[in-house]
Amino acid sequence: MSSDFEAYEQEFGTLTAEITNKVGRIPKLSGEEKTQLVLNVDKQLEEVRELLEQMDLEVREVPVQSRAMYSTRLKSYKQEMEKLEKDFKRSRIAYSDEVRNELLGDDGGSSETQLIKLREERAHLLDNTEKLERSSRRLEAGYQIAVETEQMGQEILTNLHSDREKIQRSRDRLRETDANLGKSSRVLTGMLRRVIQNRILVFILGFILFLTIILAIYFNLRSR
Known about the structure:
Elements: H1 2-25, H2 31-60, H3 64-105, H4 110-223
Membrane topology: Single-pass type IV membrane protein
Subcellular location: Endomembrane system
Family: Belongs to the VTI1 family.
């Protein structure tokens, strides 16, 4: 996971460096070149936003003991992103003012300026269409993930049901084994009781036999 986050960090650094350079160039350009640069920066900022979303998802998967460190790093990147957006916004405001001044103050070049404006609007429409397509792709990817998650959940439920049946069967076998052990224990107890009774009986018979022998010897001696 950390390797993915670091890869996103490298991509973030590359994109923000390019954006910073381009934002600094916007005031120095004019016409179609400036329009294309503004649209290009706007597109790259959208890529950075998507990149930050991916980084945010990665941070949520980080183990708790390491999450604070990655959260701090992500927070600093979001702050850097906010600064870039503010700088770009100021450049765009200045650019819009410049175009408006051209429209109001230069009648001779109004056709060319209107053509530039139309191109800018067309480029904006294309950019918005591209954003919608990216959003649609993200929605489709999210839907696919949801479907896969549902399938995984169904498989997990099926496995849990199967495991429950196995556990129930094992529990029934344990109960049956316990019952058999109880029967065996009662049989062994009965056998042990009979063994003890037999030993006592043998002891009594032996004692009687021994006493009989002693009495026979005694009476035999007296008769002499």
